Amino acid sequence: DARVTQTPRDKVTEMGQEVTMRCQPILGHNTVFWYRQTMMQGLELLAYFRNRAPLDDSGMPKDRFSAEMPDATLATLKIQPSEPRDSAVYFCASGLDNQPQHFGDGTRLSIL
Amino acid sequence: AQRVTQPEKLLSVFKGAPVELKCNYSYSGSPELFWYVQYSRQRLQLLLRHISRESIKGFTADLNKGETSFHLKKPFAQEEDSAMYYCALIANQAGTALIFGKGTTLSVSS
């Protein structure tokens, strides 16, 4: 059963530190999505890629967040510098064209 | 603008009772609608897709274009159904992102 793999599963760090979250999409999928889940806002789209090209990152605070796909097997989401309000669960999902997206287990991020 | 509305943040029912989780959407074209479920501290999993017209774990959902709704229903709730349920849509373009509602927590007690 193919799965989207996210690392780390949990991350606790201090305000101001750089945070890097990684995602390995399902082999063969050509779309990758980053979502943020909080109690207040629910699931928000941060960025997504199609065939490794960024299509939409309008949901992402540009001054501190960046998303990249260095190759087809790796997507990264970086926060620098991190702030307490960034504390959330970050989900990566991958898909193939208009097929349903498959989600990873998420990274639970706590910024102290 | 595309939007998904789940009016109930929490729905509490007793085991064996019918369940209906409401979802309304706004989109001018022909969207594709989904229900995702998230059990405690787990990943989101696809539960239903409207074009499949299937029943999963006893749940069904019918797309009502006139009312722009895609409510999730189950005739007899079970305790293991307790989870967060998200309604989502994709605009009718290949490979675009899901737009989620804010989710409804279903709590089923005995």
What features would you describe in this structure?
- The complex is a heterodimer of chains A (112) and B (110).
- Chain A contains no helices and eleven strands.
- In chain A, strands 2, 4, 5, 6, 9, 10 and 11 form a seven-stranded mixed β-sheet that branches. In chain A, strands 1-3-8-7 form a four-stranded antiparallel β-sheet, with no helix packed on it.
- With 112 residues, chain A is mostly beta strands.
- In chain A, strand 9 and strand 10 form a beta hairpin.
- The mean pLDDT of chain A is 92.
- Chain B is mainly beta and 110 residues long.
- Chain B is built from no helices and eleven strands.
- In chain B, the strands form three sheets. In chain B, strands 2, 5, 6, 9, 10 and 11 form a six-stranded mixed β-sheet that branches. Chain B has a three-stranded antiparallel β-sheet with strand order 3-8-7, with no helix packed on it. In chain B, strands 1-4 form a two-stranded antiparallel sheet.
- In chain B, a hairpin with an 8-residue loop joins strand 9 and strand 10.
- The radius of gyration of chain B is 13 Å and the shape is globular.
- Chain B starts with a strand and ends with a strand.
- The interface between A and B is medium-sized, with 24 and 22 residues.
The strand count of chain B comes to 11
Shape of chain B: globular
Q: Mind telling me the C-alpha Rg of chain B?
A: 13 Å
- Please give the share of residues in helix of chain B: under 10%
Output mean pLDDT of chain B.
90
Quickly list its features.
heterodimer; A: 112 residues; mainly beta; 7-stranded mixed β-sheet; 4-stranded antiparallel β-sheet; 11 strands; globular; B: 110 residues; 6-stranded mixed β-sheet; 3-stranded antiparallel β-sheet
Give the structure's gist in a few sentences.
Chain A is mainly β. Chain A is built from no helices and eleven strands. Chain B is an all-beta fold and 110 residues long.
Protein topology:
The complex is a heterodimer of chains A (112) and B (110).
Chain A: E1 5-7, E2 10-13, E3 19-24, E4 31-38, E5 42-50, E6 53-56, E7 65-71, E8 74-79, E9 88-95, E10 102-103, E11 107-111
Parallel strand pairs in A: 2-11
Antiparallel strand pairs in A: 1-3, 3-8, 4-5, 4-9, 5-6, 7-8, 9-10, 9-11
Chain B: E1 3-5, E2 10-14, E3 19-21, E4 24-26, E5 32-38, E6 45-49, E7 60-61, E8 72-74, E9 83-90, E10 99-100, E11 104-109
Parallel strand pairs in B: 2-11
Antiparallel strand pairs in B: 1-4, 3-8, 5-6, 5-9, 7-8, 9-10, 9-11
